Amino acid sequence: MSMIRDLRAVVRPSSRVSLRKETSASSYDTTRDPAMPSAVVDCAVYRDGTRVASDTPLSPHEAMRLVRRDGGFVWIGLHEPTEAEFAGIASEFGLHPLAVEDAVQAHQRPKLERYDDSLFTVFKTIHYVEHDRLTANSEVVETGEVMCFTGRDFFITVRHGGQGSLRALRHRLQDDPELLAKGPSAVLHAIADHVVDGYIAVADAVQDDIDEVETEVFSPGRRGGVSRGVDSARIYQLKREVLEFKRAVAPLLRPMQLLSERPMRLIDPDIQKYFRDVADHLARVQEQVLGFDELLNSILQANLAQASVAQNEDMRKITAWAAIIAVPTMVCGVYGMNFTYMPELHWKYGYPVIMGITVALCVGIHRMLKRNGWL
Q1: What is the pTM of this model?
Q2: Model confidence over 357-375: pLDDT tens digits?
Q3: What does the pLDDT average to over 306-326?
Q4: DSSP result, 157-215
Q5: Are 199 and 126 in contact (CB under 8 A)?
Q6: Could you give the CA distance from residue 273 to residue 306 in angstroms, rounded to a whole number?
Q7: Predicted confidence (pLDDT) per residue in 56-67, tens digit
Q8: C-alpha torsion sign, points 79, 83, 88, 89
Q9: Structural contact between residues 49 and 190, judged by C-beta atoms closer than 8 angstroms
Q10: How far apart are CA 294 and CA 239, in angstroms?
């Protein structure tokens, strides 16, 4: 039970830390160690759940040498490494070339692959972009990537994008030696749960945006009960952002199920059962995202239908007023012709009588159209 409480404490969502802040706060200074790749954010050796102290920053080669000599595992964090920067690390840890290529190039689909004695896992991180009001050009979600190489005695993370810092997560894990002593699989679980907890937070924020648009679409407007303040482009933009969210969530469900159900040599049995909780949370988020997509389809169709109704209403009013104006137009057109014998042309009361008849016809047509709902 104590391990469950510890694990839940570890995998709470971390606060967002900007890339600039993380880099400046890193314990590494590449100017002091020319052999250290500039993409390395952190490199440490963990033995019995505790970070091994070092007077100088460890290079990946030195860290792996200590692990092979004294045991434990090494955790290396990188941010957007180039092919040249990652080549030495890939060679040192025997990473598969296909996985290395995916890690360097990024823009990968969430997945879990096994290469010889290592697991390669890809996560899509999602960050909600704050905005005062949703517009047709609003960016709602911002994506990044975290690639994880899990081995028997090493764990390597490769991040792409400015969001999804793992620095706070590393510190929380270091505060729980009992959990960290489970090895690289404990780190993999913590990252997976951290990413999925981020999905839950983003889903709640996106739900608020959808509720706002839905309220505007279905609330009565000023004219005819039809809302005229919602631009279809706003709904379509939100739908595109939800689609991007869906692409991050849906493919990850199968890898989480595999990690929770299929025994794997690199995954500690005590840690594996906790992947089931991650898979359950992910399934819930997937249901939410699918519901968002369907709801936005309905909202978009309803908005287009309301726009069509509003256009028909405008056309009916224009037609009604054209019918009313047609009466004086016809009368004036007749009396504007140059004929000698015109009805009541020389009668003293001809003009007021014709004007009275014209007004009476216009009023009668107006009342008839208004009674029928055209005005």
Answers
A1: 0.73
A2: 888 888 888 888 888 777 7
A3: 80
A4: EEEESSS---HHHHHHHHT-HHHHTT-HHHHHHHHHHHHHHHHHHHHHHHHHHHHHHHH
A5: yes
A6: 50
A7: 888 888 999 999
A8: positive
A9: no
A10: 10
